[in-house]
From TrEMBL:
Lineage per the UniProt record: Bacteria, Pseudomonadati, Pseudomonadota, Alphaproteobacteria, Hyphomicrobiales
Statement: the UniProt record of this protein carries the keyword Ribosomal protein: no
Keyword tRNA-binding (UniProt): no
Family note: Belongs to the ABC transporter superfamily.
Keywords: ATP-binding, Nucleotide-binding, Transport
A GO term, aspect molecular function: ATP binding
Signal peptide: none
Domain spans labelled ABC transporter: 2-236
Protein name: Osmoprotectant transport system ATP-binding protein
Entry-linked Pfam families: ABC_tran
InterPro entries named in the record: AAA+_ATPase, ABC_transporter-like_ATP-bd, ABC_transporter-like_CS, CBS_dom_sf, P-loop_NTPase
Provenance organism: Neorhizobium huautlense
Amino acid sequence: MIEIDAISKAYGDVTVVDNVSMTIEAGSITVIVGTSGSGKTTLLRMINRLVEPTSGSIRIDGEDNGAIAPHELRRRIGYAIQGHGLFPHRTVADNIATVPKLLGWPQDRIDARVEELLNLFQLDPASFGPRFPHELSGGQSQRVGVARALAAEPNLLLMDEPFGALDPVIRAKAQDDLLAIQKHFGTTIILVTHDMEEAFGLADRIAVMDGGRLLQYATPSEMLASPATDFVASLIGTAERPFRLLALNPVERAVEPGAAEGKPISADASQRDALAELLWSGRPALPVTGKDGAVAGRVTVDGLLKQARPA
Ligand SMILES: Nc1ncnc2c1ncn2[C@@H]1O[C@H](COP(=O)(O)OP(=O)(O)OP(=O)(O)O)[C@@H](O)[C@H]1O
């Protein structure tokens, strides 16, 4: 658990993070959004002490981070940034091995970990391990950057616009990878982004910053139902609200009894995908299949319209 308590940062007379308090549950994904210059990166960097706060404190699993040496914190906490920051003269394998080596892991454990991560990110270890960063595509470098941040099995991963430079297809894939990894390792992730779609797609809780202040810290559905200020509402995008709500919930929650014609949709799919399919195919209802593949009922346009409103 990360407890941020009344943290502030000032440069001269300018306060860029202003009295922010928030508690981040272990094993959750928190996404920080806000306008440019609102203090998101500064807040993130105070957690691993790349920036020292002017006042306030941060506790990581009960331990004040001010009492932990910065180099020690950076070994414990994964950090992935836009542009990935790979060491150009080290191979992919050596880049990923950076922190485990600093921690003095035995070589066979390091090799096994590098191979595990490359496989996890769908980069063939034999082909990619020996390459240098300039021999990778942008998307591959990005994945290596995240793999490196995860190498020493950190409980906490800080990510600053990690997918900012990726094209939409690779970005969606990278987001899926991240969710899979988070599930696999139970990592606590704090991620900064400008992309609200990404925020709603990944977050257990979203933190909205403006002018150094934390305007709202809530689950995506709470934020959609009751944005704290007009600024939060405009950031979410008024016209996007029903679609974001549908995207948050699985078809499973909108299943009705009865039959329907044509290709079924999985109960795990999002309600937004179901609505898109209904609109696109001009059908009034889709059959829904459960985990066992058997038809569990149907989902209808009318049923989904009811779901696209706050409870
Ligand atoms: N070392 C520094 N000295 C002076 N001002 C700084 C310093 N670092 C950041 N700032 C200022 O602090 C404010 C917040 O910066 P920060 O990088 O945290 O914002 P951000 O929300 O991450 O912005 P962006 O979305 O553009 O990346 C900005 O106005 C920035 O100019």
